[in-house]
What we know:
The complex is a heterooctamer, with four copies of chain A and four copies of chain E. Chain A is an alpha/beta fold. Chain A has helices at residues 37-47, 90-102, 124-136, 149-158, 179-188, 202-209, 220-223, 228-248; strands spanning 16-18, 21-23, 27-29, 51-58, 79-83, 108-111, 140-145, 162-165, 194-196, 215-218. In chain A, the strands form three sheets. Chain A has a five-stranded parallel β-sheet. Chain A has a three-stranded parallel β-sheet with strand order 3-10-9. Chain E contains one helix and five strands, in the order E-E-H-E-E-E. Chain E is globular and about 45 Å long. Chains in contact: A-B, A-C, A-E, A-H, B-D, B-E, B-H, C-D, C-F, C-G, D-F, D-G.
Amino acid sequence: MTSTAQPPRVELDQPLTIGGQQFTSRLLVGTGKYRTSAEMLATLESSGAEVVTVAVRRVDLDRSNEESLLHVLDPDRWFLLANTAGCYSAAEAVRYARLAREAGFNDFVKLEVIGDKDTLLPDVEGLLEATKTLAAEGFVVLAYTNDDLITALKLEDAGAAAVMPLASPIGSGLGLLSPYGIRTIKQRLAVPVIVDAGVGTASDACLTMEQGVDGILMNTALAEADHPPAMGHAMRHAVAAGRLAYLAGRMPRREIAVPSSPGSGMLDEQSS
Amino acid sequence: MTSTAQPPRVELDQPLTIGGQQFTSRLLVGTGKYRTSAEMLATLESSGAEVVTVAVRRVDLDRSNEESLLHVLDPDRWFLLANTAGCYSAAEAVRYARLAREAGFNDFVKLEVIGDKDTLLPDVEGLLEATKTLAAEGFVVLAYTNDDLITALKLEDAGAAAVMPLASPIGSGLGLLSPYGIRTIKQRLAVPVIVDAGVGTASDACLTMEQGVDGILMNTALAEADHPPAMGHAMRHAVAAGRLAYLAGRMPRREIAVPSSPGSGMLDEQSS
Amino acid sequence: MTSTAQPPRVELDQPLTIGGQQFTSRLLVGTGKYRTSAEMLATLESSGAEVVTVAVRRVDLDRSNEESLLHVLDPDRWFLLANTAGCYSAAEAVRYARLAREAGFNDFVKLEVIGDKDTLLPDVEGLLEATKTLAAEGFVVLAYTNDDLITALKLEDAGAAAVMPLASPIGSGLGLLSPYGIRTIKQRLAVPVIVDAGVGTASDACLTMEQGVDGILMNTALAEADHPPAMGHAMRHAVAAGRLAYLAGRMPRREIAVPSSPGSGMLDEQSS
Amino acid sequence: MTSTAQPPRVELDQPLTIGGQQFTSRLLVGTGKYRTSAEMLATLESSGAEVVTVAVRRVDLDRSNEESLLHVLDPDRWFLLANTAGCYSAAEAVRYARLAREAGFNDFVKLEVIGDKDTLLPDVEGLLEATKTLAAEGFVVLAYTNDDLITALKLEDAGAAAVMPLASPIGSGLGLLSPYGIRTIKQRLAVPVIVDAGVGTASDACLTMEQGVDGILMNTALAEADHPPAMGHAMRHAVAAGRLAYLAGRMPRREIAVPSSPGSGMLDEQSS
Amino acid sequence: MNELTVIVNGASRQVPAPATARRLLEHLELDPRGVVVEINQRIIRRPQLDDAHLAEGDRIEIVHFVGGG
Amino acid sequence: MNELTVIVNGASRQVPAPATARRLLEHLELDPRGVVVEINQRIIRRPQLDDAHLAEGDRIEIVHFVGGG
Amino acid sequence: MNELTVIVNGASRQVPAPATARRLLEHLELDPRGVVVEINQRIIRRPQLDDAHLAEGDRIEIVHFVGGG
Amino acid sequence: MNELTVIVNGASRQVPAPATARRLLEHLELDPRGVVVEINQRIIRRPQLDDAHLAEGDRIEIVHFVGGG
């Protein structure tokens, strides 16, 4: 070990860029299922997220306006990413996406076309169709999909600005079921890969980022933690940790021990 | 969701305390196997660690003094934790510990009594014996051990100030082989539990901290990363992430999907 | 424990039935990549399989006939299941299936429509299209697919007689990547589920069968074992083991120990 | 592929031999916790086991003799392996072992010295002491231990005829927590390695045998299955499967797909 | 004064005639900047709210953003 | 004696004319029971092998089963 | 007739005196082939059952095999 | 001038006599603040370096901290 050599320069990471727009954080968060608005806001803050997802639903005409999300979320502070959650066909998802765009914030849509109520897994046929339609209309489509590489490649071809494979089913907290699948998708696609759904705790997020993906979107892991703001903080660290570890390049795994301290220079050795 | 309720106060974490001494970081790092001193220092800095381990070895009388670690590591900046790496008996480990203490920095020792050259696994018989001897001499003993609860309990009884079960063999990078074992040890011991050895990348560190342990000591994961300073930074985040996630209380795992967006308020629903 | 009670009757398993035809084994095996015909035959025998897959390829007009599989495999002894391996579109797969049927053995086809040369993952769009075409022509379609439930449900609707989700990519030996995904598919489909591809060793096969699926098809795990006939024997046992364990109903997992020997009746206890 | 080459001869496995005595099965089973004697006997039969473990306890003088195990288990049919379950010190375990030997069946003892009531993990200090004592008295000691290699090596030195590391805690059903640990022990010891405790279902047993160990002892996985006799049958297959797969030598894992059917000979290819 | 019957978010409502999308929002006390209006599955862009006249039986959807993942 | 040029499994071949699918198999010394013949992407079922006449330039595929997974 | 008080498997019992280990088993209707007897932590091998005399206050353990794992 | 032969870190060395631990360090150009000295397996605390006299054949270990994990 010499003291003159320079440490290798750590390459600075590039910011996440989707559809030409740069974002300050690789962690995207949902706004559903929080116990209170205050808790949601505290969690959004602690997570460091810039992009927050929102759903499009009917105004409840019989109730006060208190639940209007725009009274809680300042659109100048947060990048509102509308989703098409709850849509079970391409046509339905396209309709919701168009309504969302009219809200006037941006052209982004987190596109969901769900295939089944129990698992909330995507219907990839409908998803491809809706992606083509919306991309042609100028939407920046972030397509929620499963971990199938072939579908991911087709989504990219169809004009998706980002592909969002799941770690495991929405709201399940089962973590990253197939690191192999996610890694393969990342290696083969040119557009950003944002893992969406299934992350349950910080180590899930860290492991996911270590596969090289560009970001993570989560909701339930935060909203259903015992202390959402603390979990937001944890996830902010976890995403940074996984990203940096990916860039830093991990040590090899080996089924043999290697000492960290020198093997020579022990006492009572006989000099040769 | 109402906006009036307060978010739950996130309990502030307590600092890691061993043998009555508080430390600023739950990440402890080794100083072996770096390519250069500059790289080591940059990594120590980026890791945020306060405690750094050092080995006791003969001065090499035939070479220049450049390798003396104290020329590189300022003892006022870093807490030097001497280890007994390379010792294969209680007597040998005790001898090294005593020499280390004479260096005059502190009474702490990371006690290793190795049982086998190939795996570097601890000899728990020798370890217990050396722990008793050194604790009686006033040492603050941090005992490197395997993931056996019974041995950990005996080490606590023998006077260890902290117990350091391994995640996997030293230098292997295999990660946390038995979350169950580590979690059980943490639940049963009163003294701090610092996981030592085997962590390979950030998600390993994060998962380890999520078991509730008090800290992690690592060396090879940093020194053998492609870019050690970046990995140091990653690990700093990973330890914070895992700790916070543990304190925040993760969501339950479930083998069923749960939507994050409201199920009602969809278009074209018939009003009742 | 009384000696008079009867043990519960173990329900006899039903034979695997696909497209109305019963089979004697839940293990289906491929015939590719063996070093010699003799080794292949010995492995087929030791595996206990009845169904063996074959590919459709041009006769090599410049070489002797020795490689004709029918000179090696007696069609009266083995049920020949032709595949459409190597096909990258629905039209191509349909053409191969029709050729295979003209060979005159049966109407079964293991339908593959591949989406990518590197991963050999299925193109589910093409697969659905080819399934509809072939089912309408009276084929008994066994559709090789990924572990996506929605696609599996659509394949069933399209007329597939069996759905064959992968454990992991063809020839990878990575084992069962998503037990959850496979289990979910099995729970939701009425037609048999045969896991195809990715099994690497006996424990993979056993774990796969424990998810409740109806059978497993494998090739590389046998042909590339050091001793294929011994591995054939291993897999025969593994499939039986996993099936029986599934039917027997495993004990619960618990994070606490429970003694197997009585806690009372120890020596020196004081009688109450 | 030529038909003239011979398949490699599959080496016949050697029978399990402990303390000079050959056994017909590598599956050893306990006799505790069955709902009825009949169910236990049916399970022992279906498992194919020869060695069955029994505990030493006081005769219950206030009840009829019906529970005496020897009225149920014919000692000429089964090899009775007495354990020292429930003993928390070397002295206590030695006392039970001596009592068991006086029963007059054999000199074997499954030696347990438990260190903790909650986890039933072994106290390796007491275990080593009792092993030395009993080996010196001519016992054939099968020592129930944890998965620590160093302790296993010391047990061998102390005269153990077989070492029995756990897969996971007794009665937990958590399966094989550390394949690495068990594999390492097997590679380093000359005496047989029988994995004891923690196996929950067939795939656990199969995976365990694939590490190369000589046998498995289980109780709860059978007694607490929904249908113990069916699980006995499953485990018989699972142990055979894992053993054969180990001997057969599994295929390599690879993160890339490799086709099982020929890449050439496709239709419409242009001849060169 | 005349009234129209329209279906707003799935329920029948009487609104004063003649009516436009903007009048409907005012009638419902909704701020146009926070909602999007669809009439018979045709989206009404905000600048056109005044021009969008309602007819008897129109199916109107008024949506906004809510918390979602 | 006349000859036809056809493409068999991707390569040009001269075959005696007039030719049928069955004659081609005989010419190539292939047992009809082990192969399937396709002419210009139309499958020739075995009973029709005699009736399937070859024409100049026909693209013929002769396939059989090989080892596969 | 005399009696002895001994502790058998943790409970006091009166047994006819003089008593041996074998007599105790007979008294308890236990088959010696299925049990092992310990008196004051000293094992009585089966051939010695007749020679093992019981004394007042002896602590006797009678064990057998039960189901265990 | 006399010399002593001592074993320092496993190798024989001649040192000027009379010698102390401190003199030995000076002779080897080692800063006492960075090392610890052991003579015949007895540690010499730093304040005692001057009092620790070396004798012929003494086995001396001089250690310091190096990088380790």
